[in-house]
Automatic annotation (TrEMBL):
SUPFAM superfamilies xrefs: GroES-like (SSF50129), NAD(P)-binding Rossmann-fold domains (SSF51735)
Protein name: Zinc-binding dehydrogenase
Named cofactor requirement(s): Zn(2+)
Species of the source: Rhizobium helianthi
Family affiliation: Belongs to the zinc-containing alcohol dehydrogenase family.
Annotated keywords: Metal-binding, Oxidoreductase, Zinc
Length: 318
């Protein structure tokens, strides 16, 4: 098989290796592709705690493809099934996954790229946010995840205020259905703009989807009394400080919407499959860049640098 190995900060090496055999309860997947996740970027930068080289295909966890081998005891899948999987070495032409972490894709999605993990993540965040008709929802950060959440919130009947840094993202937010968009430039101006849009009440739900200190601070300011602040950003680059006085005073419900239970992840993937197949969710316009596996370094650099028009990179395999 072909596999990408990270050999150091910003360095990729391609290797040809023996195709792994699935163990009991596992399946092997011949991958069609894998999404590039922002969580890869800190390891890609080579922090002190990162160990190089990575395992073959390491850090790739948004893969989809076809089952091409079954381990002993597998009964719910068969060779040839097209699937999305929760696996962890998917920057390679093949990967292994537990049967319980693999979900069949229906015929409606034939030929459609399906990075199941981030799509499932959006569904799980949406569920934790408890968004319903008539609420006002602010989404801070319109990347891939934020754009999906705009669609889901609008489909639920909420009013959506989208706040993001890039003009491209604000234009995208409009296309996804946001009722109002605000440039993420001036902290106090954003607060006053949202105050005016909500008649001084602020927002029933605020989803922080950036993963930096300032958006986290801003998210609390925009959440109404007894509102729900949902942390969806991936805060992996260091500790954060919070304004506990404000959180206390407003009586906020604060939800860390990151899941660690594989069963919950897989449930989210199943929900995402249904949502996309039924037309409730359409991520197709959000896959803005494609790369070959041999170009994984370019894909990671694009995810880091976010050139104009960039939202989500897919690495597509032959």
């Amino acid at each position: 098989m072909s596999a990408a190995i990270m050999t150091g900060a910003g360095r990729i090496e391609m290797q040809q290796l023996a195709i792994p055999e699935p163990g009991p309860g596992q399946v092997r997947i011949k991958l069609e592709g894998c999404g590039v996740c922002a969580s890869n970027l800190v390891p890609w930068s080579g922090p002190d705690w990162m160990q190089f080289p990575t395992e073959p295909g390491g850090l790739g966890h948004e893969g989809w493809g076809f089952v091409d081998a079954l381990g002993d005891g597998v009964s719910s899948l068969k060779i040839g099934d097209r699937v999305a999987a929760l696996s962890y070495n998917a920057y390679a032409s093949h990967d292994l996954a537990a049967e319980t972490a693999v979900v069949k894709l229906p015929p409606e999605l034939d030929g459609v790229p399906f990075p199941g993990e981030p799509l499932g993540c959006a569904m799980n965040i949406f569920q934790r946010a408890e968004i319903s008709a008539g609420q006002t929802v602010a989404i801070i950060g319109v990347g891939f995840l934020g754009a999906l959440l705009i669609q889901l919130a609008k489909e639920a009947g909420a009013r959506v205020i989208a706040i993001s840094r890039r003009p491209f993202s604000l234009e995208l937010a409009r296309r996804m259905g946001a009722d109002d968009v605000i440039a993420m430039e001036d902290h106090w101006k954003i607060i006053e703009d949202v105050r005016a849009l909500t008649n001084g009440q602020f927002c029933d739900r605020v989803i922080e989807a950036v993963g930096k200190q300032w958006p986290l601070d801003l998210a609390a300011e925009l959440t109404r009394e007894r509102g729900r602040l949902v942390i969806a950003g991936y805060h992996q680059d260091g500790p954060r400080q919070v304004n506990m006085q404000l959180w206390n005073w407003r009586g906020l419900d604060v939800i860390n919407a990151h899941e660690r239970d594989p069963e919950v992840y897989v449930h989210g993937i199943r929900e995402a499959i249904y949502a996309v197949a039924s037309g409730r969710l359409d991520p197709s316009a959000l896959y803005t860049h494609q790369f070959a596996l041999e170009e994984l370094d370019e894909a990671l650099n694009a995810a880091r640098d976010r050139p104009d028009g960039f939202l989500k990179a897919l690495v597509i395999y032959p």
